[in-house]
């Protein structure tokens, strides 16, 4: 058992003014958590619509109030299909879904056929230099159930801002990025990479749980 002296630094930190307590900000944003303590998100996720995926994610689905990073070898490999069951359920319940600077114009009939209420779907047009800022503002707004963005130049600091914004706005954030970023550190709560050779998704990181040993083949 840890001694009282071992906890003295944390007690001293808690006595500092809020402006000098960056650890509190990180804990609130769930980018770090206390060792030996549950992250508090288990079984609080947004169902993905894929039973095999829900079964291995510690939150039982897409993490809420958090950023999920989907790492892709190219466009059009099924990344949107992966999210459609969740987005359809959200819009059916009256939640708003925002697409920030998508690389292609969404094909409305296909989205509607997948069950989305198009009245609840917003497409935000933004130049590349403004897209990251727009993504963050949509996440932070509190007006969206989910926000999808395609950040091209986001570094770890920018991704951390997106993670904090998703927490502040109480929504699910999805960053769809090139697979080359897989080697870089990321504060996203969940990271998944699509493996073309196997036709499967590999979970690279899942906050609050262990990474599954095997990739998942998900039927769209």
UniProtKB/TrEMBL annotation:
GO BP, one annotated term: DNA repair
InterPro entries: ImuA_translesion, P-loop_NTPase, SulA_CellDiv_inhibitor, UCP037290
Record's keyword terms, sorted: DNA damage
Domain of life of the organism encoding this protein: Bacteria
PANTHER family assigned to the protein according to its UniProt record, in alphabetical order: BLR3025 PROTEIN-RELATED (PTHR35369), TRANSLESION DNA SYNTHESIS-ASSOCIATED PROTEIN IMUA (PTHR35369:SF3)
Protein name: Translesion DNA synthesis-associated protein ImuA
Gene assigned in the entry: imuA
């Amino acid at each position: 058992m840890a001694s009282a002296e071992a906890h003295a630094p944390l007690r001293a930190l808690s006595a500092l003014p809020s402006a000098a307590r960056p650890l509190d900000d990180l804990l609130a944003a769930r980018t770090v958590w206390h060792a030996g303590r549950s992250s508090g998100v288990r079984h609080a996720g947004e169902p993905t619509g894929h039973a095999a995926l829900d079964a291995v994610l510690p939150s039982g689905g897409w993490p809420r109030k958090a950023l999920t990073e989907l790492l892709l070898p190219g466009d059009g490999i099924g990344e949107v299909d992966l999210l459609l069951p969740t987005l359809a359920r959200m819009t059916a319940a009256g939640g708003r879904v925002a697409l920030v600077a998508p690389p292609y114009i969404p094909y409305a009939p296909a989205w509607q056929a997948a069950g989305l209420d198009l009245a609840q779907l917003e497409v935000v047009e933004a130049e590349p230099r403004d897209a990251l800022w727009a993504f963050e503002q949509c996440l932070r707004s509190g007006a969206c159930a989910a926000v999808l963005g395609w950040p091209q130049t986001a570094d770890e600091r920018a991704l951390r801002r997106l993670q904090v914004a998703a927490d502040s706005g109480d929504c699910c954030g999805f960053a769809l990025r090139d697979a080359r970023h897989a080697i870089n550190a990321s504060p996203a709560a969940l990271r998944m990479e699509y493996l073309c050779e196997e036709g499967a998704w590999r979970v690279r990181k899942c906050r609050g749980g262990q990474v599954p040993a095997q990739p998942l083949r998900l039927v769209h």
